[in-house]
Design brief:
The complex is a heterodimer of chains A (316) and B (383). Chain A is mainly alpha-helical. Chain A contains eleven helices and six strands. Chain A has one domain: ABC transporter involved in vitamin B12 uptake, BtuC (Orthogonal Bundle), CATH 1.10.3470. The N terminus of chain B is likely disordered. Classes of the chains: A mainly alpha (316), B mainly alpha (383).
């Protein structure tokens, strides 16, 4: 492989991984920015998105768990991937609204540590409930073979890059569109304005007569929907198991948050892609060091630029 | 309450001197009470855990009794969380990276035993020293941030070590296969750790229990000293501490290093106990999370509270997981669900933890009994 080809493949892999990181990071950062709420259950939303996607897309054979022991051997609606693209964010949205009302709200006025702890406990519970329902085994990814009659599976030959899995290209496009839409909503709509103002000074927004509580639950739900969506596209290329929430989502989301800067949507997008490309590059160069370098980047940013690349929330 | 009675005769001792002496004696008394209490508790603990709960289990028809190794394991994690609580419960710093110290100590002790000599005492010494030395630079960098940024920084350092041990460091740690070459020698060259000690169990348990007593003694000494008072003050209002003219950074760093040393003792004992160590049990962030759960479950801000948390955690994970219920069937791997639920309940409604709730319950009971007798409730007796 030529250098240019390797480079192009690294960029594409980085974009694909970065898109998932960015989706996770945006959700976490808007929730932290507006509500000053630290959500360690963000990975659980990714997990829910992943499993919801699996159930919507296909029929999956079960071989352990509560459903299996009560006689269900197959689970799923087999509606295909397009249905999941619509339904999974909706499921995430609903879970987000419920979470905001019954978990986050009672903790807005409690110390940061309590928020971290209670959501950490919730993340554990979500993971174990999923494990209880579906069993602890690993399921195959839900890579779609066609969307609207267009075949998306198999490799495609691109200039410079060479052979590349076709679905991953579509995945990057879909994710970037969703990220762009989110950015537009935050930057160009009245709702986005309230969210941004809330990030700066939520007290002032309240005084101006805006019902910020309703915006709060919308922001939370939006963040949850994005995380669930990230879960869906995550499991379209990677295997599905109860650990994916904590292993593939929670920690990357927090790394994106600190690299990009808490409370900044642009920061989360940039941070996501920076970390995505870092890990893709390191996987090619020295795969054993990939994760270590990922954490080192986050640590260096925290040490030398604690407000992150685009941070708006004050760091002490 | 004791201070006044002791020196009420006055005598030849000057008043100022007397009060200092009394304070010293009161302090020693408090430490002494903690140590004696710990020793008594440690002697009866295996009996209660194995025979007490075993008999109760026979009565209700479930196997809920503990076993020998569990008693040691509870104490090992108990030592770790006593130290962790110095950081979280007193200075208010939430670390998600203490597995780094636990795991590094475990690996250092394991490698020392394989390469040099497997004396249990030397293994603990080596593990603790290495963990403490590691805590200095990590603490030095992490303490600069607070809140979630501190948590994420400690997490990143811990995770870097984990992935190093798993991949690039496999020449030293044996990577994903785990390190199984642990060679534990006899204690003082004569006592086999598996050897039986009448009533309390094995020498392993006695060995761990001695370190538990030491841990309680050291933690009690720190907390009852002016130094520990500053730790508490840091947790309450950091700004005021700095206004008083104290070097906040130094005290936070010391709290961090001390708590890491406790984790180091625990990690070394863990590897002596298990004779095997793997990056996932030793260094992964879930282990750090387990320390957080234990500490908060038991109750932050009290000396022995976290040990209760370690007990509840290990009991659920090792004993309750083996119980088979009528409808649901074997609990098995669902133990983490129970643990998560208990944890959320504690965070939500019992900010003082299980130990705090027990203490409050007892105080309430005593209060009721005394009121029923028509006497005013006695004050004092709180520590």
């Amino acid at each position: 492989m030529s250098v240019a080809q390797t480079f192009a493949q690294v960029v594409l892999n980085g974009l694909q991984q970065g898109a998932i990181f960015a989706l996770l990071g945006i959700g976490l950062t808007i929730i932290l920015g507006t509500m000053k709420f630290l959500n360690l259950a963000h990975g659980a939303l990714y997990l829910i998105g992943g499993y919801a996607g699996m159930v919507v897309v296909r029929q999956t054979a079960l071989n352990e768990g509560i459903l299996f022991s009560t006689g269900t051997t197959e689970l799923g609606f087999g509606l295909g991937f397009v249905a999941a693209l619509v339904l999974v964010p909706v499921i995430g949205f609903v879970v987000g609204i419920a979470m905001e009302r019954w978990v986050a709200e009672p903790f807005y006025d409690r110390p940061e540590t309590d928020q971290l702890l209670v959501t950490f406990g919730l993340a554990l519970i979500a993971q174990e409930v999923i494990k209880g329902i579906f069993g602890g085994n690993t399921f195959q990814s839900v890579t779609p073979s066609e969307i609207f009659g267009v075949s998306v599976s198999g490799p495609v030959v691109l200039p410079v890059v060479g052979s590349f899995p076709q679905w991953r290209l579509y995945l990057i496009v879909i994710a970037v569109v969703v990220i762009a839409l989110t950015w537009l909503v935050i930057e160009r709509t009245d709702f986005g304005l309230v969210v941004q103002a809330g990030t700066e000074d939520s007290e002032m927004v309240r005084i101006l007569g805006i019902k910020i509580n309703r915006s709060y639950s919308l922001v939370f739900a939006l963040g949850a929907a994005l995380a669930a969506f990230a879960g869906l596209i995550g499991v379209s290329i990677q295997t599905i198991s109860p650990q994916i929430g904590t292993e593939r989502a929670l920690i990357p989301a927090f790394l994106v948050l600190v690299v990009g800067g808490a409370g900044s949507v642009v920061g989360a997008i940039v941070g996501g892609f920076v970390l995505g490309i870092t890990i893709a590059a390191m996987t090619t160069l020295a795969s054993q060091w990939a994760q270590i370098v990922l954490y080192a980047v986050a640590a260096l940013v925290l040490l030398f630029r604690p407000e992150g690349l685009f941070g708006s929330v004050e760091v002490d | 309450m004791g201070g006044d009675d002791l020196r009420s005769d006055g005598g030849a001792v000057a008043p100022g001197e007397a009060s200092v002496l009394d304070r010293a004696r009161a302090l020693a008394g408090r430490d002494g009470a903690a140590i004696v209490g710990t020793i008594v508790a440690l002697i009866v603990f295996p009996y209660l855990l194995i025979d007490g709960l075993g008999m109760l289990g026979d009565l209700i028809g479930y196997r809920i009794g503990g076993y020998e190794g569990l008693a040691s394991l509870v104490l090992i994690y108990g030592i770790v969380v006593i130290g962790f609580n110095l950081l979280l419960g007193y200075t208010g710093l939430l670390s998600f990276g203490h597995a780094a110290f636990f795991g590094t100590a475990a690996y250092a002790a394991a490698i020392f035993s394989a390469q040099v000599y497997g004396s249990p005492l030397l293994m603990v010494l080596v593990g603790t020293v290495v963990a403490t030395l590691l805590a200095w630079p990590i603490g030095f960098m992490s303490i600069r941030r607070s809140g979630v940024y501190f948590a994420v920084l400690t997490l990143t350092f811990g995770q870097m070590l984990y992935f190093w041990a798993l991949g690039p460091g496999a020449w030293l740690t044996n990577g994903d296969n785990g390190f199984s070459g642990v060679q534990v020698a006899d204690l003082f060259g004569t006592l086999r750790l598996e050897g039986i000690v009448p009533f309390v169990g094995t020498w392993m348990y006695v060995f761990v229990a001695v370190f538990m007593v030491l841990a309680v003694a050291v933690a009690s000494r720190i907390l009852n000293s002016p130094y520990g008072l500053i730790f508490k003050a840091l947790g309450e209002n950091e700004q005021r501490v700095s206004f008083v003219g104290l070097d906040v950074f130094r005290y936070k760093l010391m709290a961090f290093v001390i708590s890491a040393a406790f984790a180091g003792v625990g990690g070394s004992l863990f590897v002596i106990h298990e004779s095997y160590i793997h990056p996932t049990t030793a260094l992964y962030w879930i282990t750090s999370g387990d320390f957080v759960i234990m500490t908060v479950l038991g109750g932050t801000g009290t000396l022995v509270g976290p040990v209760f948390g370690a007990f509840v955690f290990e009991y659920i994970s090792n004993v309750i997981s083996g119980v088979s219920l009528p409808v649901i069937g074997a609990i098995g791997s669902l133990w983490r669900l129970i643990l998560g639920a208990v944890f959320v309940i504690v965070v939500w409604w019992l900010p003082e933890g299980i130990y705090g709730a027990i203490k409050e319950g007892v105080a309430w009971g005593v209060d009721r009994i005394e009121r029923d007798r028509g006497q005013p409730a006695a004050d004092g007796g709180e520590d």
